[in-house]
Amino acid sequence: MRLPEATVQHLAAHQAGVLAVEQLLAAGADRSWVRRKLASGRWQRLHRGVVVVHSGPLPWEARAWGAVLHAGPGAALSHLSAAHAQRIRTARPSEPLHVSIPACRRITAAADLVVHLRRRMPDVVLAAQARIPSTPRAVTVIDAAAGARGADGVIAWVTDGLRAGATARELRDVLADRARTPNGHLLREVLGEAVAGVESALELRYVRDVERRHRLPTSSAQDRDVVGGLWVRADGRYEPYRTRVELDGWLGHPGGRTDRDTWRDNAVLLERGELTLRYRWRHVAVTPCAVAEQVVAALRARGWAGTPRRCGAGCAVV
Question: Domain of life of the organism in this record (predicted)?
Answer without folding.
Answer: Bacteria
